[in-house]
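Usage example:
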Amino acid sequence: VPGAAHTNGGGTRVMIIGGDGYCGWATALHLSARGYNVQIVDNLVRRNYDLQLGLDTLTPIASAHDRVRKWGEVSGKHIDLQVGDICDWEFLSQTFQAFKPDAVVHFGEQRSAPYSMIDRQHAVYTQSNNVLGTINVLYAIKEFNPDCHMVKLGTMGEYGTPNIDIEEGYITITHNGRTDTLPYPKQAGSFYHLSKVHDSHNMHFAARAWKIPITDLNQGVVYGVRTEETMADRALINRYDYDGIFGTALNRFVVQAAVGHPLTVYGKGGQTRGFLDIRDTVRCIQIAIDNPPARGEQMRVFNQFTEQFSVNDLARIVTEEGKKLGLDVETISIPNPRVEAEEHYYNAKCSKLQELGLVPHLLQGSMIDSLLEFALEYKERVRPELIKPAVDWKKSGTAVATMSAAVAK
Amino acid sequence: VPGAAHTNGGGTRVMIIGGDGYCGWATALHLSARGYNVQIVDNLVRRNYDLQLGLDTLTPIASAHDRVRKWGEVSGKHIDLQVGDICDWEFLSQTFQAFKPDAVVHFGEQRSAPYSMIDRQHAVYTQSNNVLGTINVLYAIKEFNPDCHMVKLGTMGEYGTPNIDIEEGYITITHNGRTDTLPYPKQAGSFYHLSKVHDSHNMHFAARAWKIPITDLNQGVVYGVRTEETMADRALINRYDYDGIFGTALNRFVVQAAVGHPLTVYGKGGQTRGFLDIRDTVRCIQIAIDNPPARGEQMRVFNQFTEQFSVNDLARIVTEEGKKLGLDVETISIPNPRVEAEEHYYNAKCSKLQELGLVPHLLQGSMIDSLLEFALEYKERVRPELIKPAVDWKKSGTAVATMSAAVAK
Ligand SMILES: NC(=O)c1ccc[n+]([C@@H]2O[C@H](COP(=O)([O-])OP(=O)(O)OC[C@H]3O[C@@H](n4cnc5c(N)ncnc54)[C@H](O)[C@@H]3O)[C@@H](O)[C@H]2O)c1
Ligand SMILES: NC(=O)c1ccc[n+]([C@@H]2O[C@H](COP(=O)([O-])OP(=O)(O)OC[C@H]3O[C@@H](n4cnc5c(N)ncnc54)[C@H](O)[C@@H]3O)[C@@H](O)[C@H]2O)c1
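Running the assembly step on the lines above writes:
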């Protein structure tokens, strides 16, 4: 029985907004297994994006209601599921007051950069959904329980690619003989990434003005699909996005390798980012919950990733591991649909979560192996035409790109 | 005839979003007088806030339609008036395509910090109106005329009160032996000020991704009401806000002095900010229009103010000038409704606009004199009960503060 041996949650009440999504579902089960009292709040809009765009996860996932029910059977633990939109204040305020969370983990945003760049409507939707939803969460905490700890998912993409080291949230600057520690400058590269920058500024203010305890987690790119709990039953399996809109780099390459499609590197491939295993995502969230900032403390910011890779590094690793499994993996460069530096300095810090106890799962042979085996297992579900980039930053326009047109052209 | 002697606009087509407001109206006439082809776009929501809250400008202002008509009579120049909301994409896109502006001056936002802090609904409205409206303007330019120069009003309040000098938009940081010039860190103090921070980040991205020429003007607190053109006829007079929601510090003090009400300093009064005369606002906008950045150039940022004062400085100046007019001016400290440092370092740069030709009107005796005389002239319209702070940052909540309740209690 997953979680039977863990009880460190001690009944802490955790509302997980976006708990039906990729990171949220794994986190919900991880915490439930460990004795936290978990509630999932999700409007299931992520499933709707797939329906609208004609996409699907590699892994067949059960409905939100079924997977929560199955988890009850498998683990003997109850997860409360509330289907609703956090931009709907009546829904959020009533749900918050009824559940009385000690911590809110906020994953519940539109999280794809390409999706936010489809056209004007998707840009406006993304910033409105993300920024206004987060303001609602801040007010709910402020009004109904200002001791409730807000654990918010940001992204390493908020920082962009500055030519200096990236610190964790703040940087000490000496300028004209005076010194201050200020929020690290942000240079995000899509309307999605920008929505996270806006959230961070709004939360930084709320922590100062209202003394709400807030942790902002600037997460790197997550890879992998297996966690102990999501593998406990087929009905608990997590989603695995490999398409050009929602698939992140490593997950995409693995599927391409599995189906014999060349790995598609955007441009020169020197783009470097922070990465982490989904098994570390769930641990990081737990660590954040267990270590809340004091009320009145400045908003806490952690960079949540474990290793840096360039896109070319990833292609090389997948190629090598593919060979061991007898796969013949090719790499091609395709025109970069994004506007970003393709060769740049990148050195981001990520020590704070490790100081609090995170022991990273590194991207080594065995991880890629198991991912590749996984992709091979679900190979017949792969639709290779969905992998190519469907959205071009420079062409993002005001002509409405219908959902199917965005992907199928 | 105002403007008869000026033709330097050369027919440049300028769309002024928010052109019925305080800064926008003065700017529209200033540019029209100087040979620019001006269109005002405004949904008149600012007049509606006054109706909802039971507030009114000190000066009786004519309707938007009447003042534009009167300007035509007085000057012989036509200003096109389009009443509509820039958050309404159908309206904005059709208006933009029909007028074909060479430059868009974007004043059209909810601009009061207290208004944004009334309650959750006003916070959400402010960020939604401001951030989404600005995204629409960016897309309009990108799609219909990417050479069109966007001149956007930001605020000095975006920077907060860091313990180091405030540069104009960007700061060069040397860190761990490497150097980069990055967007200046932002620490805004209300949901209104934060909306401007979000705009700045979105625009910085659009300038990079789409090579749109953009100038972001971080304006200080504006004072004064007379410009050459708005004084040419009673029907052209500008608005003058002195209430606790929309009145800015100096304008408020002057009215208090005129009606014999003590000047109300929030807290210790050491809060220091940048200030400028409305006659310099209109000049700054003209200078920005006449000096567009090249396409592909980084977003240009100017700090638009001329002098720094603390709140105590302002109270002292108004007291001294009041005495000369025989007024007995008292100052009292009242509890600060905001969350802000009341004693802090403040040294902000403002040289770039002056390098381009701005010759500042300084806040000296004659300016305050004329403001005081003005306030005395309209004294019978003052409602002193509207001056006190009506919104408390710490009490901003989720219980709906009805409009009248926000002010009248
Ligand atoms: N996956 C990554 O590699 C990655 C990297 C960095 C940061 N993040 C961040 O982590 C969070 C989770 O990412 P994910 O990959 O699990 O995304 P996901 O799309 O799989 O999950 C997000 C969930 O939030 C829900 N949601 C969206 N808007 C909502 C609203 N208004 N009300 C209620 N629910 C709403 C969706 O239905 C979905 O189930 C996101 O905030 C994302 O930006 C993810
Ligand atoms: N007044 C100051 O001291 C000051 C200081 C710094 C910055 N600013 C900035 O300068 C700009 C103008 O300030 P102001 O004092 O003239 O404000 P104002 O409220 O008098 O004028 C703003 C105008 O914009 C219009 N507007 C608002 N939302 C709109 C929308 N969605 N569509 C169309 N029109 C809309 C309003 O009706 C109003 O006429 C604002 O962006 C403000 O933030 C002002």
